[in-house]
Amino acid sequence: MKALIIPAALLIALAGCTSDKAGSDLYQSSEVGQTKRILPCTVVSSREVRIRDENAGDTGEALGFIGGAIATGRNSDNGLATYIGGLVGGALGRKASDTLKQRRGVEYTVLLPSGEERQLVQDFEEGESLLHSGEACRLQVSGPVSRVLPARAYPSAVQRPQKVRIEE
Predict the structure, then answer these.
(1) Is 143 left (phi over 0), alpha (psi -120 to 50) or beta?
(2) What's the gap between Cα 15 and its chain centre?
């Protein structure tokens, strides 16, 4: 029985290790070289939240059901007991997968200079500092994906780029 449960638990644990996270300090390799629009903004509110992957329970539920059914079936000739073992295994697998595939996030509400408010949730990585109400920030927009970045390191003024004159 242990021979069946241990591999199933390892698969669930490995499935929880995959992630497509992107916080204020972490970028996906597909984002390298892409331009993004930056909008100045001010934090209206922020709060820590938990993010659950949308398909978190699918793998754990399936593996738990199969493992539970096999484990129960090997110890019983009763089909109903095997079915119930599968259901219990599926429920436990779902719970384990849900827990493994949750991560820290932060919900920001920001105010743009136009007066428009926007709210978004992004990953909150270890070592990042939470932006608080009233802090200046930058809203990075790239298609349907946005993220809030701190504005602490941005200068308050910069010189206009020099124009290049083309001579013939």
Answers:
(1) left
(2) 14
DSSP at 131: -
Rounded CA separation 168/163 (Å):
16
The DSSP 8-state label assigned to residue 30 in this structure reads G
Closest CA to 108 of 151, 50, 147, 156: 147
Spatial separation of the C-alpha atoms in residues 57 and 96, rounded to whole Å: 8
Contact, 110 vs 43, CB < 8 A?
yes
Q: Are 41 and 117 in contact (CB under 8 A)?
A: no
64: confidence class by pLDDT, cuts 50, 70, 90: low
Find the length of the chain. Answer: 168
Question: What phi and psi values does residue 139 have, to the nearest 5 degrees?
Answer: -95, 115
77-87 confidence digits (pLDDT tens)? 666 666 676 66
The one-letter code for the residue type at 104 is R
List the domains of the chain with CATH numbers. 1-21+54-100 (no CATH), 35-51+103-152 (2.40.50.840)
